[in-house]
Amino acid sequence: MTKTFKIAVFHGDGIGPEIMGPTVQILQQMADASDSYALTFADAPAGAAHYAKTGESLPAASMETARAADAILLSAMGLPDVRYDDGTEISPQIDLRKALTLFAGVRPVTLKHGQQTPLNMPEGREIDFVLIRESTEGLFHTQGRGEVSQNEARETLLITRDISEKLFRFAFDLAKNRKTAGRGPGKVTCVDKANVFRAFAFFREMFDTEARKHPDILADHAYVDATALWMVQKPWDFDVLVTENMFGDILSDLGAGLMGGLGLAPSADIGLDHAVFQPCHGSAPDIAGQGLANPFAMILSAAMMLDWLGIKHDSAAMRNDGTRLREAVEEVVARGNVLTRDLGGTADTEAAASAILSALFVT
């Protein structure tokens, strides 16, 4: 019996609509070719351009569309010249994370044979690890509400037991799923700064408590500064990393750099009931409307969505299609003959998306 899933679609700002369009088309073609699942798409207006027109960055109706959906696809958001009155950027994606308690920010880092990288990779090495960034508290807790006076400024870091325990359960479950799929040894690394901050000693203590519940999964610790070094020196040693919000924000961009740039960096923000899938890169208004945008990160985010829906709803077909879509992007990037300008090529958005379709449906 075919099951239909409703996807909320936030088209975003700048290049956002240009990369969302082909992504939705690819997903629709994959669903049309399946006899196990179907997809419907519901648009949800939001973002900086919407704020400039209406005074609302995330309308209540769009939030309800997101709540009612089985999954949420969100494209690049924000414009540098459109800000709230306090000077902060328009960021509905962060509002969604907090409203829907999307505590696990999932940032895969993969590098296959043939892909370009700034690293001097040893022969035969590949990179395949996942950084999990707590996405609702940490140093982002007081976003927009920090205290600023003439002589000092304060922001408050918050780590709670409730969110941290959920985060660590998610991390160990992910490591188990990756091990079962043959994508990792089954190891979780807690990335913190427990040698300096009591908050991170608290964070580590809760990690260790969860680790004892999973004797089949390796567990270790690493300070965030050492992790940044090892991500450059030996990134192939990592499997699942779990860390605080700000640390994860910084390390995820380093991970994108290992892959060749943000144009290949997908992400997900996942909670107990809802999940948002979006590229890590910005809205690039300087190239908007020119057909030059790289759609790969958006398409990879859609692949993550299929995989998550497949796990959540026990659909082997969706998980398989998620894998197929991810591998199609990896194949196109590794071949190197259809790359967008940010990756050193000359292909436009349409050609890049078409190359993915060809890799998916080659006969």
Structure description:
GO terms for molecular function: 3-isopropylmalate dehydrogenase activity; magnesium ion binding; NAD binding. InterPro entries: ICDH/IPMDH, IsoCit/isopropylmalate_DH_CS, IsoPropMal-DH-like_dom. Belongs to the isocitrate and isopropylmalate dehydrogenases family. LeuB type 1 subfamily. This is 3-isopropylmalate dehydrogenase. Pfam families: Iso_dh (PF00180). The chain is of the alpha/beta class and 363 residues long. It has a ten-stranded mixed β-sheet, sandwiched between helices. The chain folds into two domains: 1-100 and 273-363, Isopropylmalate Dehydrogenase; 107-264, Isopropylmalate Dehydrogenase (3-Layer(aba) Sandwich), CATH 3.40.718. The protein contains eleven helices and twelve strands. Helix 1 (16-32) runs parallel beside helix 11. It is globular and about 55 Å long. The protein has helices at 16-32, 48-54, 60-68, 92-99, 161-180, 198-211, 224-233, 245-259, 296-312, 316-335, 349-361; strands at residues 3-10, 37-43, 71-74, 104-111, 127-134, 147-148, 153-154, 187-192, 218-223, 240-243, 266-270, 275-279. Strand 1, helix 1 and strand 2 form a beta-alpha-beta unit.
